[in-house]
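Why run this: before we spend reagent on co-expression, it is cheaper to look at a predicted model of the complex and decide which construct boundaries make sense. The entries below are exactly what would go into the expression plan.
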Amino acid sequence: MALARATDPYSDPSWSGWGDPANVPELPEEVLSLLGHALGVSRPGRRPGPISAVTLPASRLPAPVRTMLETAIGVANVVDRDEARVRHTRGKSTPDLLRVRAGDFGAAPDLVVLPGSHQQVLEALRICSQHRIAVVPFGGGTSVVGGLQPRSEPFAGVIALDPRRLNGLLGLDEVSQVATLEVGLRGPQAESLLGSRGFTTGHYPQSFEYATIGGYAATRSSGQASAGYGRFDDLVVGLRVATPVGELSIGGRAPKSAAGPDLRQLILGSEGTLGVITAVSLQIRPLPETRVYEGWRFDSFATGASALRTLAQDGRRPTVLRCSDEAETALNLARPAEIGAEGAGGGCLAIVGWEGSAEDVDMRGRGATRMLEALGRGPEPEAGESWARDRYRGPYLRDALLDAGALVETLETVTFWSLLPALYAAVSGALRDSLIAQGTPPVILCHISHVYASGASRYFTVGCAQLKDPVEQWRRAKAAASDAILAAGGSITHHHGVGRDHRDWYERELGPTAVEALRAVKTELDPAGVLNPGILIP
Amino acid sequence: MALARATDPYSDPSWSGWGDPANVPELPEEVLSLLGHALGVSRPGRRPGPISAVTLPASRLPAPVRTMLETAIGVANVVDRDEARVRHTRGKSTPDLLRVRAGDFGAAPDLVVLPGSHQQVLEALRICSQHRIAVVPFGGGTSVVGGLQPRSEPFAGVIALDPRRLNGLLGLDEVSQVATLEVGLRGPQAESLLGSRGFTTGHYPQSFEYATIGGYAATRSSGQASAGYGRFDDLVVGLRVATPVGELSIGGRAPKSAAGPDLRQLILGSEGTLGVITAVSLQIRPLPETRVYEGWRFDSFATGASALRTLAQDGRRPTVLRCSDEAETALNLARPAEIGAEGAGGGCLAIVGWEGSAEDVDMRGRGATRMLEALGRGPEPEAGESWARDRYRGPYLRDALLDAGALVETLETVTFWSLLPALYAAVSGALRDSLIAQGTPPVILCHISHVYASGASRYFTVGCAQLKDPVEQWRRAKAAASDAILAAGGSITHHHGVGRDHRDWYERELGPTAVEALRAVKTELDPAGVLNPGILIP
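The model came back. Tokens follow.
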């Protein structure tokens, strides 16, 4: 029984790009000209045709299995329409979008199922496990690491398990500030259910408009306000999980305990390979009275990073904290609506945001302002407000740039503060070397957007001209960057997850004994190996 | 290669009580009289004899295994002297001490080994795994949940692995504020190594004087300053672990990442059952400039709990935060040196402490003071200072009370704020009912000492007259309390760990699917099952 369910209409994002196609900007002449001059973009990229022109392989799911699923979940919730299969093919990485543009739908699932309860998920997994059908949990579909493209062999078929009907607020403990949410809720749906009761998760990743609660948990998502509210995995106090061998109900008795290993942390980040999360209990916060976002400007990225480190270490942490390097500041990517506009202002632009009670924002803000004034210049209220207004527009810009013939992609990593300068140089260098060697000198932008007392993330955006095979072009550059990340002591991913794209590096990061331990858990919970095969687990 | 090693002398704690016997207080007449009047204590408890009078079972370790261990670790570091075996028998729970007082040393290990490097630990585990010798990692020996008493059957012997020679500061990253410490370092040794370089872990559990870095990690220790510095598991960024199947090196690339499940959280709390931690990389903090501890007084425990919850939820969290209930306040247990003294002051005494830069302490303190003034009375600087001065004295008092014929023990749990009042009533009631039924009406004290936004711990101290078989007397009371904890929605332990004493309730808390997942990891990493058998894993 849910306290309430999401009521806003569930609009599908673009099947061939990011989000709502109406938000894809028209690129200004200056940008098009810059693409030509600076990157050598000389011809437009391949554009997607109409969805009706997509050719799919025939659904190969055995008819008896389909009947069993229909019996368990309802005929209306077992779907093999081409459009549904297309919309559940892969995620939203640039290689994913390039494959869509190339009409490559070989990875389409055979069937889409929409379970309406934890029990129905359990039942679906039992059937799929018994009949060796691979299962990909497919929430918002916003993976950018190949997390939604399971291996289809040696299975008898692949189903996409879409949790959109699991859209309830199951519980709200206002005293403890804990809410239990079903996993199919998208970011805005969850915020609407909580907001009308005076609460927020505080979790606003760039994928917020489409990503789901289940996806946040399964991939260890990190939001733009992570400095203040914490990462999504920090917020989770309990998980309900369906596995082929039964239910796992983990935590949910306390925020923290000393009762053995914290098994919540085994499911968080498991990317659908150990079970399907059906509900999450979360630390929530009262809706902030006040929100203030400001720009601050530093002479160099190193000085900006120092300022962020000081704030992260001294306990006066803002709610939002990010800092762009010189190139990103110059291109104004922190404010995508103004990309290429005059007046970017030079130096390195940081966004510092405060959310909370008026008193709290004032008090924390004053302490931090003294520190920011010592190292940088500001505040620039307009820069902060424009960042907040345009914070979800970045990915739409990519669609326009792909149309224009540019190859644009992002990658991210995290390590300790002392290692960040060398990691920054090594990753930038590896990307540059690889793309220059391929004849497409890139522009490389970087920012810090998630900070900890001991370290921080680095988020890179890369742009260059598309070669004839842009998927292979990026594969090479990305492999070089990934090698550089591990060699520089970083983790292969701070918040995008492992998926299929990072799996080989993840294996190196973990080491052989840890890989075997993880495989042992997988074998126990998913003996037939049907859960998102080929993803995450080496 | 270590940057530095601990140099202070390694004094063994009392073999038959807590810590340094010189610190056991003489009980004032008022207390002795109170024990008689209020609890019906009518005869002194059994006292331990001299260590030389202890009779141990013969060491049953096969001679060839001993030789192999001597070859691997050095003859001088493989010890079977009776005194060493006695000192490595069990931990420091009240049942443990009662068994010592009864001369029960059947659980003594056959051999004590003192490896001097990670490699030597690996080698020892390889040998023990091959020859089916159970291994108990024995650090400070301060377990209060039976975590140091492995099952000896069906093994060919039991060795205690004492890490005291693993006492190095292996690395210090001052920029990132991360230190790598070997696990044999005791609390004061670690603080001394870090303190001379300007840093602290901020981790001060009541067992601080004897407990080790490895024990903190293996049991998810939580210190008295957890509100400010976090729990020990929050501080860990990397772990080096020796297992019978090889080395695990987990994390150490970043404070947080999205690279799959957080496997550090599988080792933290594993209590020596999945591997032996040999080094830990930790978030450290600069030594605080200022430390201020104050008493605040509330009319009721409910009001005090409300005040703590507000501070925990609104972001103005002090460094130390605890609140005693009416009974504990009346008995002055927050200030053990003054137990029973006049002027306890009534109501519920909270200790609120601030550590940090002078500016930070002032700023955070001012915001919190306004809130504390709204709900309670204070500050009482003297109450705060006396708490700080006497913070490690509590366990010594137990030795004196056991001598006097009282049965004294503590237990603790954690749950969400909304459930705490009912849990408090249920656990107190269960303890009271069980002990009254046994003819020994108890005094039950409680405090909150670890807070989170969504919940808090409750720590109970129970005192009554000893029956003839006080171990069985406590077993019954504790079982009733443990049942009540689970029924009220709490976790079986907030910071003491699971050990042997909580294992049955841990199994119920986890549920069958999670138990199987944990066993699968155990089987993978410890195929012969020699690591602390009978502890933690159901």
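The mean pLDDT of chain A is 95. The radius of gyration of chain A is 23 Å. Bring this page to Monday's planning discussion.
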